[in-house]
Amino acid sequence: MPWYPPAGGADGGDVSFWYATYCVVGLGILLACAVYYVLWIYILPRFGHYQIRQEVVPLPFGANTHRLVKVKDTEVAAWDRVHDLKGNMISEEAISHSDSLIMNDLKL
Question: 21: Cβ–Cβ under 8 A, 6 or more apart, which residues?
Fold first, then answer.
């Protein structure tokens, strides 16, 4: 167990430094990654007046990949209108059908 000292005490391991240094460094790297993620996905978009959206990018031979895209706050409604939650482009027929449903709801 990395947090329990070896039989010779804190300095009794097979290295010349503290026996749990690699554990602390590993946890530090994970913490740094978490801080970077929160900063990049939540904090910077709030101050930069944009949102991060996911876009599906089709590749040859039927494979798909995803790309994160910055969308300005003023363009989010338009982006969401033509993309589903997964980031796929919505077909024009689906958009026109949803528009007609919305218009029918407004007439009621």
Answer: 15
**Cα–Cα distance measured from residue 27 to residue 35, given in angstroms and rounded to the nearest whole number:** 12
Model confidence at 17, pLDDT cuts 50, 70, 90, reads confident
C-alpha to C-alpha distance for 66 and 87, rounded to whole angstroms:
8
User: What is the per-residue pLDDT for 103?
Assistant: 47
For the residues 86-101, what does the mean pLDDT come to?
61
Distance of CA 99 to the CA centre of its chain: 30
Q: Are 21 and 7 in contact (CB under 8 A)?
A: no
pLDDT of residue 53: 92
* CB 64, CB 56: distance < 8 Å: yes
d(CA 36, CA 94): 38
Sign of CA dihedral 8, 12, 18, 21: negative
Residue pair 12/6 in contact (Cβ under 8 Å)? The answer is yes
